Amino acid sequence: MPVRVVDTATPSSQPSPGQDANPGQPSPPSCSLLSAGRCFAGTQNVSSLQKDEAWKVNVRIHGCDLEQGYLCGTMEALNVPLADTPVVTFWEGEIVDAKNHTFFTGKWEASPEDDIRHWSKFPSFLPLLGQVETDGGKLLDLSSYPFIFMRWKEQYFVNVGVDCGLTIAGFYYVCFSCSDGSISGFYYDPNSSPFQKLELKCTNEKNSGFTFSSYELQRNFGRVWIIISLPCFDDACTENLACAVGLGAGEFCLGIASTNTSDALSESPAAVHAEPTPNPNPSPKFWEELCRAVPARQEMDLLGLS
Questions:
Q1: How many domains would you assign to the chain?
Q2: Which residues does residue 274 pair with via DSSP β-bridges, in sequence order?
Q3: What's the distance, CA 294 to chain centroid?
Q4: Is 17 exposed, middle or buried (0-12, 13-18, 19+ CB in 10 A)?
């Protein structure tokens, strides 16, 4: 999340033909260090021609599905100039596995040349370079490779508005070490300083971020659903919400929208949006009741970001 240089519209999330993958390829190796609840800490270098600057950064993974080549999480920048509080963003990631995603991005204003230039910054990528230059790495078997390559795309600001002076128009090229959980990355945005480096170490802390007895993460309808119970609601609030959505008391679904479904979130990015498990399109009354029922401080607690 570098300092905004030029305001740009959100680029299309539709992949180009260069992103076509090979569905017959195996998934990357399962790694306990790349799993839901895992936390990382480090810095992002945001140096420009005018000055050198580095921000402290914390990352938490909220969901990881190696089979689908998908993960998501939050990123917190701690000492951002001109920001009164740490800046938190929600991101979604693509795991480069040659099955769901290749090394060619095919979107977000990144050309194949941009891809090669950024991936080549990682020494662990160089043995793969020849095959990637040929076809994006569609024929590579990465299932036993000791590094996992990813793209992380920030989708929205969680606790600040879009006028905070930062941009999330770009994305990160990411390399994860399966041996020690270290992460390195480079930010790409044509309107930001090039090759801003992200360096993270696993903190060995694994915390889901939720204070509830259980939760389940799955992808559905282009969104991330986290099914949780809400003991923090009193009986009256629970009853009102249950009436609004036609659910029984005690269980709701916290939905974090991806780019194609984030209109409601962009209007109030700090709000927690809960949705009932069986209904992907709750009524406007549901959102109204929810926002009235959950105070702002509690909203942040639900996301594990307080």
A1: 2
A2: 254
A3: 24
A4: exposed
Structure tokens at 295: 């105070």
The percent of the chain in helix, strand and coil, each rounded to the nearest 5, is 20, 30, 50
Tens of pLDDT along 47-101?
655 566 788 999 999 888 888 899 999 999 988 877 788 888 999 999 999 989 9
- Residues sharing a CB contact under 8 Å with residue 154, sequence separation 6 or more, in sequence order: 1, 75, 89, 90, 91, 168, 171
Expressed as residue numbers, the domain containing 158 is 17-206
Secondary structure of 136-201 in the HEC alphabet?
CCCCCCCCCCCEEEEEEEEEEECCCCCCCCECCCCEEEEEEECCCCCEEEEEECCCCCCCEEEEEE
- Same domain? 269 vs 189: no
pLDDT in tens, 248-271: 333 344 433 332 333 333 333 333
Cβ-Cβ contacts under 8 Å for 6 (sequence gap 6 or more): 191
Residues 171, 219 share a domain: no
Distance, CA of 160 to CA of 64 (rounded, Å): 25
Q: Clarify whether residues 164 and 80 are in a common domain.
A: yes
Q: Are residues 245 and 129 in the same domain?
A: no
φ, ψ for residue 254, nearest 5 deg: -85, 115
Asked whether residue 63 is domain-assigned, the answer is: yes
Picking from 206, 229, 263, the residue at the C-terminal end of a domain is: 206
State whether 290 and 186 are in the same domain.
no
Q: Are residues 249 and 285 in the same domain?
A: yes
pTM: 0.64
